[in-house]
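[Automated response] Your request has been received and processed.

Submitted sequence:
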Amino acid sequence: MGMVNSEIEDKDRNSTNRTTMSRSTISAIESAIFWGYFITQIPGGLIAAASPANKLFGAAIGSSCILNLFVPVLYDNPTGLIIVKVLQGLVEGVTYPACHGIMRYWAPPLERSRLATIAFSGCYAGVMFSMMVCGILMKNISLFAPFYFYSVIGVVWYICWLWLVFEKPSLHTCIEPKELIMIEKSLGAITNVHSSPFIGSSQQHYTNPTLSSTPWKAFFTSLPCYAIFVANFCRSWNFYLLVLFQASYFKEAFGTTTAENASLGALPHFLMTLVVPAGGIMADRLRKKGILNTTQVRKLFNCGGFGLEATFFIAMAYSHTTLQGMTALTIGVAFSGFAISGFNVNHLDIAPRYASILMGLSNGIGTVAGAIVPIIKNSVVVNGTKEQWRILIILSAFIHYAGIIFYGIFASGELQPWADPTAEEEKQWNQMNETVPVNKYTVSLGNIPYVQTYENHFGTKVS
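Generated structure:
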């Protein structure tokens, strides 16, 4: 959207576009997606907890790509554009909760940081790729080419997703038995798996959380939860500020062209793509070797990433050249990648059973930042002067510093008491028979730690 806005402004000055949009209209279009995105965060978390999260995630991306086709058609209609962006926000709002719903079944505790950050690095790779490709497509084909390009790519991706991705390890058609055992043994009772043939009798299985069974009061009285909420808001503020206005900042403050913004602007997000998974690997290694406990790792990576990004943001605000500004921005954004190994996987530490719902809550709060940023930007940066941009950037830095203080004091990496199974759930489990259905088959558990033979989806016996 930032690249599209920059191109719209260029065409406005040349009087070659079909419509002239005021700053307030563009701001309304930019923020529209966030209002829809906000609405479906908590419902998305509940749906992801109660149904196959992989299907929910894929359907959301596929639907958003189809809606993208309507943007060129409604280019002259601001109201229509706002409606489409709200609809896109509604379907995309379930994606992050669904991501945590998928991780709940697939990510062993000591590999959560690595697996989650590898997945989340795609967000930054997407921004990097889009900045480069959008500039090329708009310059050589048309303003609308990126919308068609990403719609087609998204639909193709969705088809591949349906074919290759499964809800949980026990349903995967090609997983190795040893890997299945390792994943489910490490996850234990917290994953609510009912269909695995590799479940020890000591492992317990509880129903998925529902609207009535979710401990809402515990969520809103838990300081570790608030630490995640605050961190998500702070990180979202800077992320959306860059996605929406990075190109505008360099254009108005330093006079860079759209083509220069396309190439230079991709660099910070390229480094994020590398740093985010690297941070996840480092975080898991510190935990596995017992150098730091989970709480210490989350605080170190989150506060360190936030602090360095904020500091380099201030350096960017006082830069005098494009090179200085881009260098400060690139280094700051790169360091912020370590924070993803802090708050963004913290939901799985404190309440894995409710991770998708907590992600919906925290991401909903982060979305509020995304909706506020365009409003604050247009209130502060009235004339597009360097001094006005400096105020906005310094404000963003101090929002990060506030997040450091709150997260550093109240965050936790330990399973919270309210996330444990209730006494009623324990009672229900003890009354259950020690046999569980596996699709069409039944496997007797008894005191045997693992089932010796089962029949997979292809009908092949596996020992």
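Summary generated for your ticket: DSSP finds 20 helices and four strands in the chain. Residues 1-18, 189-205, 426-463 have pLDDT under 50 and may be disordered.
If you did not submit this request, please reply to this message.
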